[in-house]
Amino acid sequence: xxxxxxxxxxxxxxxxxxxxxxxxxxxxxxxxxxxxxxxxxxxxxxxxxxxxxxxxxxxxxxxxxxxxxxxxxxxxxxxxxxxxxxxxxxxxxxxxxxxxxxxxxxxxxxxxxxxxxxxxxxxxxxxxxxxxxxxxxxxxxxxxxxxxxxxxxxxxxxxxxxxxxxxxxxxxxxxxxxxxxxxxxxxxxxxxxxxxxxxxxxxxxxxxxxxxxxxxxxxxxxxxxxxxxxxxxxxxxxxxxxxxxxxxxxxxxxxxxxxxxxxxxxxxxxxxxxxx
Amino acid sequence: xxxxxxxxxxxxxxxxxxxxxxxxxxxxxxxxxxxxxxxxxxxxxxxxxxxxxxxxxxxxxxxxxxxxxxxxxxxxxxxxxxxxxxxxxxxxxxxxxxxxxxxxxxxxxxxxxxxxxxxxxxxxxxxxxxxxxxxxxxxxxxxxxxxxxxxxxxxxxxxxxxxxxxxxxxxxxxxxxxxxxxxxxxxxxxxxxxxxxxxxxxxxxxxxxxxxxxxxxxxxxxxxxxxxxxxxxxxxxxxxxxxxxxxxxxxxxxxxxxxxxxxxxxxxxxxxxxxxxxxxxxxxxxxxxxxx
Lengths: 276, 292
Ligand SMILES: Nc1ncnc2c1ncn2[C@@H]1O[C@H](COP(=O)(O)OP(=O)(O)O)[C@@H](O)[C@H]1O
Ligand SMILES: [Mg+2]
Prior knowledge:
The complex is a heterodimer of chains A (276) and B (292). Chain A is an all-alpha fold and 276 residues long. Chain A folds into 2 domains: 1-53; 55-275, MetI-like fold, CATH 1.10.3720. Chain A has helices spanning 4-35, 39-44, 46-49, 56-68, 81-112, 114-127, 136-143, 146-171, 175-183, 188-226, 231-240, 244-272. Chain B is an alpha/beta fold and 292 residues long. Chain B has a domain at 6-38 and 51-78 and 199-289. In chain B, the strands form 2 sheets. Chain B has a 7-stranded mixed beta sheet, sandwiched between helices. In chain B, α2 (97-108) crosses α3 (114-127) and α2 (97-108) runs parallel beside α4 (143-156). Chain A binds chain B through residues 176-177, 179-180, 182-186, 194-195, 198-199, 201, 272, 274-276, and chain B through 58, 60, 78-80, 82-84, 86, 88, 90, 92-94, 103-104, 107-108, 137, 139-140, 157. The complex binds adenosine-5'-diphosphate and magnesium ion. Magnesium ion (MG) binds at residues 50-51, 87, 165 of chain B.
């Protein structure tokens, strides 16, 4: 009997081949269908507007072309996929790290002080459900810079999960461990770094993992609005060029990079995870 | 009256009852003393307030009334002079066994070099026989091993007073016996002053010089101060053959089973009656005479 992992891998492959096969066949069927249009439809130009969804074989060919030269730069509207992803990653990581630098200390404060928790909770509850893109006009007006506004939107969307998880993790540190720090006469600062931080670290990292996922979701939309560079702009640009093959290819790349970001943080989580 | 090393005077602890204008008195009028190098156990039914007394001794909680004086100074907060081994092994689960001890040693002697802290910690891990598993995290240690690390951490900081809250409560009988023996020999070689909570009568007899008997709560008091008049060194296997062992054991069990409920009303003075069941059984003076 094969191991579960091998069987799962084989099954995954079967699903992939089946899905790609069906997709390939159905896009060919589209081509055939166009030949049997009624005169009325031909008159209305339906056949022209009905651009066909490219078959996977086209997408694979395009992927090969793009990935073999990911960093070419031929003017503002023609840059390699690597450059576009690089811009998006730069914005995501900048906004995300800034959010972490605010959220983690603030979360500590809220988690350690019931007073601060009560004082700040109403603001958090109002600000948290605001769609990050709703900040965009205000950000553009105040910051007056598209690039910085995109980073601000990432900042504002990734701050909440980190803030709330840090506060929750810090407040939930077992009183036994805090008592260990107290009986060893540790200062407040030492207690925070040597007991509370490691104790709350898994919860904080869960928040960071949620945040990076949201940030990556939001950057695509933000770049569609802001334009210029980035994977979101690239998707929109290719759509305007009616190059659906590139659109599908970039969708796949967005998924792939998002997965890698998540894998990175989950590896980090495993490092600091402890068993009670 | 001569002051003892640890002097507990008229201690009371009351907690407010939620939603009512009254308070719950866990215990009151608790007075006793411990000499330097003495091993004192306290026995009482679950919930009578033993852990609450210990929190007052360690300084983690301030008592509502009364004072604890150690070495001439009033206890006003936690201190490295009072090492605590908590009921549920309070090791830090993200640190290895050795690093847990280093944590305590570094807090105690912040100026020591890294090398010296490590050597000192190693020595105490060795003392409890765990040098083989020094890199394991508490989650990968058995209950007995974890409790050994806790004890090693407490001893490594060389506190003036060691407080143990039912340290072996969660262990199986076999492991408990082995660690009890270790504790006996460590205490004998270090002359450590110990205050230990237990609900195991045999454990108390094996380890203690004196056993404080606590009445049932609420409003618990210390009803008796029982002297364990058995020669040392004591061994788990042979102590039961000592003359007087059973009269002592029966006295303790009789208290726990029959008298702990009524003891509160019977006790009037702040200082508990000192009782020596072994001498009584062998025809010594009556407890009242000892008390006078
Ligand atoms: N912080 C607290 N608030 C209210 N009641 C408490 C508190 N701590 C302990 N108690 C009460 O004090 C009593 C004694 O508890 P404890 O000292 O843990 O008992 P023991 O250790 O002897 O089993 C219990 O009835 C418990 O409910
Ligand atoms: Mg208890």
